[in-house]
UniProtKB/TrEMBL annotation:
CDD domains named in the record: MFS_MefA_like
Designated name of the protein: MFS family permease
Keyword set, alphabetical order: Cell membrane, Membrane, Transmembrane, Transmembrane helix, Transport
One of the Pfam families matching this protein, by short name: MFS_3
Source species of the chain: Microcella frigidaquae
Gene Ontology CC entries for this record: plasma membrane
Membrane topology: Multi-pass membrane protein
Molecular functions per Gene Ontology: transmembrane transporter activity
Length: 448
């Protein structure tokens, strides 16, 4: 009897993403599915508005306290519940209807956002209000993320699954860049409360969209029966697959250090260039421009490999460190665009590789671990990088936030090469890759 958790793809081989033509139409092929197209439209709004609320909340705390470290605490409270409850969110996603779960989740998001926006707009908000609501939102998010990921696989036919996962990751990460940019503009023009209110409206749109999906066009994944050891089973599955395990290890460093960029940019805007919320909006807008470019480039990917994910993380970290070293404002700004491109390409490639390497029956639990690392890392990294920015200065914190992920990418690349009996080879022949990772038996001596 075959193992139900057997890998869908060989763990050490390239995973094809596009076959045949690579026209712009083929890059967005999964949007031809009505349910998927409508859902992703609502998700683009939801992710953008969700990040608007997170950034507006951070700025609200900065206004209330004047302390960057307090902003880091807010991020910890927003993401912290995932550290404790994340695996159970994945179990819930595998056991129940994903569509019904998400309707409940976004209803809760809308009510909580409306409450925080009302407190802010009426001027009665206090720090403990923000902290309490952030914790509850974090608890709701525990279920939302794995349920959303698995629902995507129920919307499209198998031949479009790779494209759908890539676009879903693009929407998620692109919203993470657009949201802060829009939030910066709204905060500067009208205040944090209105930026938070947008998320309440976005949540309502998602609920309506989910309720009106065509049920007969969904490919429902059978729910998993309740049994003991489901979390342990998922951990063993992750450890057994290099295409899942190593991206998660690398993500630990990227999430803790690299993804706290919004916290550091508040300090850069406030202390380094004295540009206030307007400058903060400009910085996040430039990163968003890079993100848009990265999202478009990601739809053209032909293969997913561990080595390309490692290289992407290395480039991303290096650019972020260089932004901290930038001697002049004119160099700092274009580097933000490069950061947006590199980070989104890295994030989408890593997200897609993990999902495509995972059996659907256990995908909710596996992706819950992935999200735990991503948001849990930000929960730890928020106060850590906020404290470093307060202690060492925003520019030094920015250097550290890029240098650590870049160093981690190099170390992990060496470990993978050694464990797979691989070597780095530089090829100078025309028509061949300049740099390749090959097996020992494939290494050719340099030409004399």
């Amino acid at each position: 009897m075959p193992d139900p958790l057997a890998p869908a793809f060989p763990p050490t081989e390239p995973i094809p993403v596009h076959r045949g033509s690579t026209s712009l139409r083929d890059s967005f092929a999964s949007l031809q599915i009505r349910n998927y197209r409508r859902f992703q439209g609502s998700q683009l709004l939801a992710h953008t508005a969700g990040w608007m609320q997170r950034i507006a909340t951070d700025w609200l705390v900065l206004e209330l306290t004047g302390n960057i470290a307090a902003v880091g605490v807010t991020i910890f409270l927003q993401w912290g519940p995932m550290l404790l409850l994340g695996p159970y969110g994945g179990v819930i996603a595998d056991r129940f209807s994903k569509r019904r779960l998400l309707i409940g989740v976004y209803t809760a998001f809308g009510l909580l956002s409306a409450l925080l926006a009302t407190l802010a707009l009426t001027g009665v908000v206090e720090l403990w209000h923000v902290y309490a609501i952030s914790v509850v939102i974090g608890c709701v998010f525990v279920v939302e993320s794995p349920a959303r990921v698995v629902l995507v696989t129920e919307m499209v036919e198998p031949r479009l699954l790779q494209n759908a996962i890539s676009l879903n990751a693009s929407v998620f990460h692109f919203g993470g860049f657009i949201g802060p940019a829009v939030a910066g503009l709204i905060i500067a023009a009208a205040g944090s409360g209105w930026a938070i209110a947008v998320n309440a409206v976005a949540a309502l749109v998602v609920v309506i969209t989910l309720a009106t999906l065509r049920s007969d066009e969904l490919r429902i994944i059978p729910v998993q029966p309740r049994q003991s050891g489901q979390i342990r089973q998922a951990l063993q599955y992750v450890r057994s697959k290099p295409t899942i395990f190593w991206p998660m290890i690398l993500l630990m460093f990227v999430a803790v250090f690299g993804m706290s960029l919004p916290v550091i940019l508040t300090g850069v805007a406030d202390e380094v260039y004295d540009s206030g919320s307007t400058g903060y909006g400009l910085y996040t807008s430039l990163v968003a421009i890079g993100a848009l470019t990265g999202a478009l480039l990601s739809t053209r990917m032909r293969t997913l490999r561990l080595r390309t994910i490692i290289i992407a993380a290395l480039v991303y970290g290096t650019l972020q460190a260089l932004a901290g070293l930038a001697p002049v404002y004119g160099l700092f700004l274009p580097l933000l665009i490069g950061i947006g491109i590199a980070r989104l390409i890295y994030a989408i490639m890593a997200d897609s590789l993990v999902q495509l390497s995972c059996n659907p029956g256990i995908r909710g639990r596996v992706m819950s671990f992935y999200v735990i690392i991503m948001v849990g890392g930000q929960a730890i990294g928020g106060p850590l990088m906020g404290g470093l920015a307060e202690w060492l200065g925003p520019q030094t914190a920015l250097i550290i936030s890029g240098a650590v992920p870049a160093a981690a990418a190099i170390v992990i690349g060496v470990l993978i090469a050694r464990s797979g009996a691989l070597r780095l080879q530089v090829r100078l022949k025309r028509g061949e890759s300049i740099v390749a990772i090959v097996g020992r038996s494939q290494i050719t001596p340099p030409e004399r």
